[in-house]
Amino acid sequence: MYVCSCFGITDKQVAEHAAAGACTPRQIASATKAGTDCGSCVRTIQGLLGRGACPRRELLEKGRTAATVLAPAAELDKAAELSEVVAA
């Protein structure tokens, strides 16, 4: 079923992103653009996400950022290099 007709996003795609750690409509929007045009799908996305456990939220509550836990090590190395260049 299409959740976002503006960008052709399905409930299956929302579920896949949720399983990968997207816990809020805003995080789904970042990954898919769903909810960023007319906005009529935001409540549907909220309903699909429910109020269940969120792996990312649980990690944040333990004091770790989601990026340090979920991002591959190579991506973290690139981010460190970029921050060093920006700081210089």
From TrEMBL:
Ranges where the BFD-like [2Fe-2S]-binding domain occurs: 2-50
Species for this entry: Streptomyces bambusae
Record's protein name: Bacterioferritin-associated ferredoxin
Gene3D superfamilies: BFD-like [2Fe-2S]-binding domain
Pfam families reported for this sequence: Fer2_BFD
Family matches, as InterPro entries: BFD-associated_ferredoxin, BFD-like_2Fe2S-bd_dom, BFD-like_2Fe2S-bd_dom_sf
Family under the similarity heading: Belongs to the Bfd family.
Keywords: 2Fe-2S, Electron transport, Iron, Iron-sulfur, Metal-binding, Transport
